[in-house]
Amino acid sequence: MSHFAEGGLRGDLADLIASFRERLAVVEIDTAGTRIFEVRVDEVGTTYYTRRAAAKWSTLAAAGDDVHDAVLRVSQDLISADEGDPVVVVRSADGQEQEAAVRALRQWRPSAQVAEVSGAKVGDLLRELVAGAPLRQVYDLIMARERADDRRLELVGQRLFGPGAKPGEDAQVAVTCTDVGGMLLAISAWAGPLQPSELVSVDHAPLSPGRHVLRAVLERPGVVRFPGIPGLRPDTRPWADVVATLPSRLHYAPRPAHLVCAIETAGTAKEFEARCHWAGYIIDLLAERRLDPRQLQVSVVGYGTHVFGARHADRTRPAMAVWSASAAQARTALESLQPTAPAYPNAAQLEDVLAEVSARLLPQPVNTRTALLTIGARPPHPPRAGLDRVPPCPARYDWLALLREMEQRHDLRSAVICDSPPATASSAWHRLGSAALFQVDAVNAEELALRLGLVTSPAAVLALPFVSQNSDSQNEDLGGRH
């Protein structure tokens, strides 16, 4: 029978709690009697302990047996005979009863390890050591991934924590949310590569569609937190019901798209900032929602107001910040625009923008969606003087004819975000915003992108995080294919 050194009880017991196979028995022997504790690990790797028995010396001998026989009988009932299951005896007092109890334990389990420690409180010590016990299994975040051969969805596990991870450790994982309602964060525990997984937890995260980098913290085995997600709440549905809602394929914006953002620069710094904000927001939204960034082209053009009353005709042209670029390049080009003072209060050179865009638009592939998003305060100039007393465009561009031509030749869809409420907007704004018309302080970006045909609704709701086949992360197939 081996012995612990008095000062090494805590460390040696912590090592046993981290490494026992099936169960660990800890027997406490003191002046009052004896108590038997059992430490186990549940199906999700959580270490826990229970007190199996407790008896005073007088109680043990009440049936007529001496202490030795009584402790032996209880030990045979409650302590495993398997030598692979360690037994620790913590003795904190001397006497005949204590010595008899140790002899009985030695008889039943010769390999029991004994620690003679005065004043030890085994229950308190186990509570502390179990709370800090390392993880015994693998914890994965369950995600959906497209198979390379047929693009059908399959369930995979993204490693968060491995065996040996201790409370307080954190991990990061990049995922894509594909549903406006958020997604489920389901943690799976693996006992081994060939054994089925158990669910540690399933929580609903109210995240917006797009790519997110999540931080997971192992609070303790059995509890994983995501501290950066406000509003996280448990999802109590049966897991089979969750899996049954998963689509066989994911259909988000399969068509290539070209978005032209026309932004009026004339106005106050606050007005200009609000317009650029929405242009950038829509660009970011499309970049996040579209799974293949190569299928998205973005153009950014800034325009001001015409100058009247000068000796020479106004020949200023819109500022083409970038044409047919990536979302990242368009974002950079957007930041290069600067606000300008309005030279005329009732209209802007929007018809010049349409002429510039029409001249630059080349025939797109048949399945490409071309969209124009205009963000401003002033409608276009008419091609000739009219009853509204707005002076005509110096170049005599006909904005309506240009718009109709692009709609016919390029299947263009047009939306507007204007400074004034839609109810009071001019007829020109309503025509330019035939797909969608929003006021600058009340924009539904998801609906706007949907109406422009730049994204499409999924065939069904994908409740789980999505990870692309080309992700750098290490994924393990869970075998839950659909």
Please give the structural blueprint.
Blueprint: E1 3-4, H1 9-19, E2 24-29, E3 33-41, E4 47-56, H2 57-60, H3 67-78, E5 87-91, H4 96-108, E6 113-116, H5 122-131, E7 138-146, E8 153-161, E9 170-177, E10 183-190, E11 197-205, E12 210-220, E13 223-225, E14 233-234, H6 239-244, E15 257-264, H7 269-289, E16 296-303, E17 319-325, H8 327-336, H9 350-360, E18 369-376, H10 399-410, E19 413-418, H11 427-432, E20 436-439, H12 445-451, E21 466-467, E22 475-477
Parallel strand pairs: 1-6, 2-5, 5-6, 7-21, 15-16, 15-18, 18-19, 19-20
Antiparallel strand pairs: 2-3, 3-4, 7-8, 7-10, 8-22, 9-12, 10-11, 11-14, 12-13, 16-17
CATH architectural grouping of the largest domain? 3-Layer(aba) Sandwich
- Helix/strand/pairing category: alpha/beta
Identify low-pLDDT runs. Answer: none
- Reported by name, the CATH topology of the largest domain is Rossmann fold
Supply Rg. Answer: 35 Å
Number of β-strand runs: 22
Number of structural domains = 3
Q: Can you tell me the CATH superfamily of the largest domain?
A: von Willebrand factor, type A domain
Distance between the termini: 56 Å
| Mean of residue pLDDT values | 87
